[in-house]
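Question (not urgent): is this output format expected?
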Amino acid sequence: MEFKKIFKIMNESFQNNEMRTYESQRKLLKNENYRMYTEYDDNDGVIGFLAYWSLKSCIFFEHLAISKNQRGKGIGTKIILKHIKNAEKPVFLEVHPPVTALAKRRINLYKRLGFNLNHFYYEQPALRENESSQQLMIMSYPKSISETDFNKYKNEIYNNVYNVKPC
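Got this back:
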């Protein structure tokens, strides 16, 4: 796997508070629940990736990013569809609330692919030292979920993905 190239795309696509450090992210590759799907161009160059967690009760998409010069070509859609097509467990991902144009655009993309925006806030624990937690929202596939029903998944996500105990 070409982790340096993947991390470069991640760094171009996410703010520091939305991703781990290089060392912390690389260490995840040894976790049996963590998966990294990489998309390549015709010349075997890395053009995008999906980092996700295959947990006992659900699948949690943590990062999806496409290289700047490949965006808008349907690559992200292709990657997502490939991974939800045969999902035998609920799939969750975090999004920023729909208050900015970019957040609205991302939410609409996921909605077109069958995800549902659930109308409760969710706190993403900090991914780096000296960073704050973020108030986000959860999108789910294939159906909506209530905050109460999501709590059992949240416990597993917090324990495995963020290595913290739920509030």
